[in-house]
């Protein structure tokens, strides 16, 4: 007796077709994904430093006048503060004239604002009252563009009796050019490292894909402290050298 012919299951056929199409689509997608794989790259950093002789200097000094000492709680005499302020302004005016005569351009002399602050001198033994006074101060800043004038300027400051001289800071006028040299040295160092690494791995160094400056070039202005004696002819005026540092990060393509 012949067996009846079994009709195909439509659900099974449809599912089979879907699975087949899914596998084909997955294979088709895998090919472009493999083709789009990221190329091999190499990232290196380089540091560069430039030493340069400074060609300019900066000076910071302060003048002050103080009212007479009085016992704590005692009122100041009328006009004492105004007298101190007037004496300070007179000294500052004379100092500026002296500096101009010493060869400092007037536009390179910057006199700051007056500050007024109380001072307390505490008694060193029992039974003695604390004493107080008022200090009137004014700072002055100088830009020296000719270093050979520095000894003369310092002599003028000491003879004028400045109350505080913070020392000399050396610098260079064209910072941009010096920073560019430091960056160029950093790039050369990074490129040398990249070539050495690629050669050791038997790979060909491709083009630079990205360059990132690590940080702004770092200037290291040189400071010169003043001698305790404050004698201008006893100070060593040799400015030495200023160091400028830079850092760069380069990313290269690698080719087998």
Tally the helices: 4
Strand content: 35-45%
CATH architecture tag of the largest domain: 2-Layer Sandwich
Pick out the low-confidence regions: 10-16, 227-234
Protein name: SIMPL domain-containing protein
Keywords: Signal
InterPro entries: 26kDa_periplasmic_antigen, SIMPL/DUF541
Signal peptide: 1-37
List the defining traits of the structure above.
256 residues, Translation Initiation Factor IF3, Alpha-Beta Plaits, 2 domains, seven-stranded antiparallel beta sheet, 26kDa_periplasmic_antigen
What would your notes on this structure say?
With 256 residues, this protein is of the alpha+beta class. It has 2 domains: 41-52 and 175-230 and 237-255, Protein of unknown function (DUF541), domain 1 (Translation Initiation Factor IF3, 2-Layer Sandwich); 56-120 and 131-171, Alpha-Beta Plaits, CATH 3.30.70. Helices cover 33% and strands 36% of the residues. The chain is built from 4 helices and 10 strands. It has helices spanning 10-35, 80-101, 150-159, 175-200, and strands at residues 41-52, 56-66, 70-71, 109-111, 115-121, 131-144, 164-171, 204-220, 222-224, 242-255. Strands 2, 3, 4, 5, 6, 7 and 9 form a 7-stranded antiparallel beta sheet that branches. The longest helix has 26 residues, at 10-35. The radius of gyration is 38 Å and the shape is elongated. The two termini are 72 Å apart.
Write the layout of secondary structure elements.
Layout lengths: L9 H26 L5 E12 L3 E11 L3 E2 L8 H22 L7 E3 L3 E7 L9 E14 L5 H10 L4 E8 L3 H26 L3 E17 L1 E3 L17 E14 L1
Antiparallel strand pairs: 1-10, 2-6, 2-7, 3-6, 4-6, 5-6, 7-9, 8-10
Protein name: SIMPL domain-containing protein
Keywords: Signal
Pfam families: SIMPL (PF04402)
């Amino acid at each position: 007796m012949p067996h009846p012919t079994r009709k195909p299951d439509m659900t099974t056929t449809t599912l089979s077709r879907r699975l087949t199409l899914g596998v084909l689509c997955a294979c088709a997608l895998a090919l472009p994904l493999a083709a789009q794989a990221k190329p091999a790259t190499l990232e290196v950093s380089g540091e560069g430093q430039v030493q340069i002789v400074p060609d300019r200097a900066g000076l910071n000094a302060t003048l002050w006048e103080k009212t007479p000492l009085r016992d704590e709680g005692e009122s100041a005499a009328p006009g004492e503060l105004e007298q101190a302020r007037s004496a300070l302004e007179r000294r500052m005016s004379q100092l500026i004239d002296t500096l101009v005569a010493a060869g400092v351009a007037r536009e390179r002399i910057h006199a700051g604002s007056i500050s007024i602050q109380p001072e307390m001198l505490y008694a060193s033994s029992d039974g003695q009252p604390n004493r107080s006074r008022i200090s009137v101060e004014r700072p002055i800043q100088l830009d020296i563009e000719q270093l050979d004038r520095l000894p003369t300027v310092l002599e003028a400051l000491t003879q004028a009796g400045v109350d505080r001289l913070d020392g000399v800071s050396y610098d260079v006028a064209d910072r941009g050019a010096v920073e560019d040299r430091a960056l160029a040295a950093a790039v050369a160092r990074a490129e040398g490292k990249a070539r050495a690494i690629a050669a050791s791995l038997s790979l060909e160094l491709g083009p630079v894909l990205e360059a990132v400056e690590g940080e702004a070039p770092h200037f290291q202005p040189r400071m010169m402290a003043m001698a305790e004696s404050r004698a201008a002819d006893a100070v060593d005026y040799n400015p030495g050298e200023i160091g400028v540092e830079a850092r760069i990060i380069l990313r290269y393509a690698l080719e087998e």
